[in-house]
Design a protein that fits this description.
By secondary structure, the protein is an alpha+beta fold. Helix content is 42%, strand content 23%. The chain is elongated.
């Protein structure tokens, strides 16, 4: 029997007012029989739990009874940061702590504020992952969370995009970032010199990780939010290495936000110039490479035409030609 679970039953009754044994069981993830036994143990310990039989009945605390046993554990206090992000809390292994911390907070509130908080919880939902992809598997996320909080070095094997693809790293995790449903660890790495380089690693790309006994000191002047903003700006600057001149139809411009990166949309808005009475515009947009730009712009079909550079225009024509041949329409008007 868990003393923590008995406290949870007590706090549930205090915050909800009246609950059936089945509702208690569903809330705590136990059997109905276990819920009955837990209530009996509370009654045996002197807690005034009243049973109300019949339709709409259940268990409730005697009017006026309130417990002050709402002290939070260290894990529950950490979990408060993720109270509005249940999926993120689950990724970090804090789902139970978030539930317990939220329950203790509700129990500590006066009746009016508790009811308002409960209403608020029913009308807001956060869904962090982006569309059109499955959530990433991050088996070492909780390890990095522990390492970040305890400031312990992690021995990791990591898969990156450039050769050699698999590398070993000794990481000093400074923080974790959840970006569009993807987890990243920001960590200092030893490069064989007296200095360390701070870099960003996608947690799903970690092939193996071991928590070492070695501890580290995080620099006092390191600020995770500022680092991440700088990293995003640098990533955008490195990502786009060229430009392209395109023509867009009115429909193509409306479809643009659903098919290309926000930076491309902003560039069109900033540089668009009308080129006729039919609503078509000409604009200059940033590009990563001819292959990448070709793939993005082809999503717009006949609503876009590449004017320059020649390599991208040729890539578009070659791809369209290959598609025509694949569908057996070569030479047709």
């Amino acid at each position: 029997m868990s003393a923590g679970r008995l406290l949870s039953v007590l706090l549930l009754l205090q915050s909800r007012g009246r609950m059936s044994a089945r509702a208690i069981a569903e809330e705590l993830g136990v059997s109905v029989r276990t819920a009955y036994r837990d209530v009996e143990r509370l009654q045996g310990a002197g807690v005034p739990v009243c049973a109300e039989p019949g339709r709409g009945g259940g268990y409730r605390l005697l009017d006026g009874y309130r417990t002050r046993l709402t002290g939070m554990t260290q894990g529950e206090a950490r979990a408060l940061l993720f109270a509005g992000l249940p999926d993120a809390a689950a990724d970090l292994g804090l789902a139970a702590e978030v539930s317990a911390a939220r329950l203790k907070l509700l129990a500590a509130l006066p009746a009016g504020a508790r009811e308002e908080a409960a209403r608020t919880a029913t009308v807001f939902h956060v869904d962090a992952p982006g569309w059109y992809r499955e959530p990433e598997q991050t088996p070492y996320l909780s390890l990095f969370a522990d390492a970040t909080l305890a400031r312990r070095v992690v021995e990791a094997r990591y898969r990156r995009w450039r050769a050699p693809q698999e590398v070993s790293r000794r990481l000093r995790p400074y923080g974790l970032v959840l970006k569009s449903g993807v987890w990243y660890v920001v960590a200092a790495t030893e490069d064989g010199t007296a200095t360390a380089t701070v870099a960003t690693y996608r947690v799903a790309q970690v092939l193996d990780a071991t928590l070492s006994d070695e501890r580290f000191d995080r620099p006092r002047d390191f600020e995770l939010g500022a680092y991440w903003a700088s990293y995003l700006a640098d990533f955008a600057a490195r990502r786009y290495t060229g430009t392209a001149t395109i023509r867009l139809s009115p429909r193509g411009r409306r479809r643009l936000p659903d098919n290309v990166a926000p930076e491309v949309v902003r560039a069109v808005d900033a540089t668009a110039t009308a080129v006729g009475a039919d609503g078509w515009v000409e604009a200059v947009v940033p590009t990563e490479s001819a292959a990448h730009a070709c793939g993005e712009l082809l999503r717009l079909g006949t609503d876009v035409e590449v004017l320059a550079p020649a390599a991208l225009r040729r890539a578009m024509a070659d791809t369209v030609g290959a598609l025509a041949r694949a569908y057996g329409v070569t030479g047709r008007a």
